[in-house]
C-alpha cells in the first residue's frame, strides 16, 4: 500500500491548495451569487403570477 503524503488525499489532491482556492472564492463572493446573477427576478415574479392565475382559473371550474 502506498504511503499517503501529508496534505494530500488518497486521490492525490493537494488539500492546502483546495482550501486556499475555497478561501479566495469565498472572499470574492462567488459562493451563492453564481445562480442569483443569472436570475431575472421580474420574469420569475411574472411567471409565478401567471401560474397562480391559471391555478385559480382551474380550481373555479
TrEMBL record:
Keywords per UniProt: Repeat, Sporulation
Pfam family, one: SASP_gamma
InterPro entries per the UniProt record, alphabetical: Spore_gamma
Source taxon at top rank: Bacteria
Stretch list, region Disordered: 42-61
A biological process from GO: sporulation resulting in formation of a cellular spore
Biased composition regions of type Low complexity, renumbered to the chain: 42-51
Family assignment from sequence similarity: Belongs to the gamma-type SASP family.
NCBIfam families, per database record: SASP_gamma
Protein name per the record: Small, acid-soluble spore protein gamma-type
Organism per entry: Parageobacillus galactosidasius
Organism lineage string: Bacteria, Bacillati, Bacillota, Bacilli, Bacillales
